[in-house]
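Data card: per-record layout.
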Amino acid sequence: MDLLTHVLVAYLLTAGLVGLQPQYLAAGALAGGLPDADALFFPLARRFPILRHHGITHSVFGVTVVAIAGGLLAPHILPGSPFVYFLVMEVGGLAHILQDGFTQFSVPPLAPFSDRPLQLDADRAINFLTLVVSAFGFYLLLGIERNQVAFQVYYLTLWAFAAFFIAYFGIRLAGRLAIGRQRRLLGEFQQVVPTSNPFIWLLLSETNAGGRVRTTWARFALGRGIIAGPFTAEGPLEPTPHDGLPASAKEALEWSYPLARRASRVIETTYHFGEAFPEPAGGWVAVWYSLEFSAFGRSAGVRVRFPPAGAPVEVKSTFYRPRQRAI
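The structure for this 327-residue chain is written out next.
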């Protein structure tokens, strides 16, 4: 979850709990974003791992310590009840933990007492849909409507955004549960990856044996099941000797895969897939792209071109729109 969405959701929860009282809205919204301040601890995280991103600040213990501090200090800044300040900051912080645990980026809610992660794999860590809605929400609520429209209009706007997030998280969770129930019927997929479309998911499996990597994926739609695939691609980890041009898409993928892995850490460290196609002039192009690192229909990848007439192979990192619409 992005920072704006964390803050907006905490703002909405605070409004639902205590109404439109500015001092509490500010405290709740601040608490919704504060766990990500652990990014400032980066220089210390190697020595003290508990300070890493998604570490102690993303736990009930860390959130509660911050809420207690806020309850004690905030009344000296803006008049209000210490208990209410504590309540809204606790809720805002817990909402942050739950939203992050909703994604594929796990958090340790019971740290420092337990490192057991919370990871539902129901959404992307950064989803541009919620980011755009959150940015627009702040612009509308705090820039256009605040003190400019009737109280009832502002209140209805708050509930409209709340309804959006309730529906969004509900759809995401329903999809994750549906895939979990049908897992045996869907095949031997190891991983479920949400896409930026809340109704679409990728089912993935990868094997690494005998010096070769094999990836299989299918597209799953909530309420419809598998709507595309399974598709499979594989290639060797080390380059194999060859001369001339590839004779087929399979050969282009075989020759290009080691080059793509060496050219991009994204390809090396995320689930990925490859496509190859001939060029009109006689060469071949193979593109390996991440199935996880994607946005707006494009994915981070590597384009490997085998030009005709014996010209050198061209390897270029790129953002690619897959022909098989994997993202």
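Known properties of this structure: Strands lie at 191-194, 200-209, 212-221, 225-236, 272-278, 284-295, 298-306, 314-320. The chain has ten helices and eight strands.

See the next section for split statistics.
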